[in-house]
Amino acid sequence: MKISIRVRITNQLSVFTADMMAITIGLQWVEDVLLHRVVFYVDSEAVLLSVKFMASIRKDLVLEIHQSLFRLHRVGKNIRF
Questions:
Q1: Which of 33, 57, 63, 74 suits 22 as a labelling partner, its CA being 20 to 30 A distant?
Q2: Where residue 59 falls among pLDDT bands split at 50, 70, 90?
Q3: How many other C-beta atoms can be found within 10 angstroms of the C-beta atom of residue 65?
Q4: Cα separation, 48 vs 26, whole angstroms
């Protein structure tokens, strides 16, 4: 299955923030579809470590990612990075 979601973000955002937003948008999509196993391929170690340790300058996005992961886990959807 090939999925493409396009969202325009402001030019002033860092690549780090853009990657965090991409994960957030992807998780929101997964919450809306009927898939139960999803793999996210992320090439930003900084983003993955921020999510893992909940330590980031963008605590709002890290929290949003964790909330989405919790909601997905609660309904039986398995997400891997």
A1: 74
A2: very high
A3: 24
A4: 14
Listed in sequence order, the residues at least 6 apart from 31 whose beta carbon sits closer than 8 Å to its beta carbon are 68, 71, 72, 77
What values do phi and psi take at 80, rounded to 5?
-130, 145
Return the number of other C-beta atoms located less than 10 Å from residue 29's C-beta: 13
* DSSP-assigned letters across all residues of 31-55: HHS--SEEE-----HHHHHHHHHT-
pLDDT higher at 7 or 63: 63
What would the pLDDT profile of 19-57 be if each residue is shown by its tens digit?
999 999 999 999 988 777 788 888 899 999 999 999 888
> Can you tell me which residue has the tokens 């997905």?
72
- Cβ proximity of 50 and 62 under 8 Å: yes
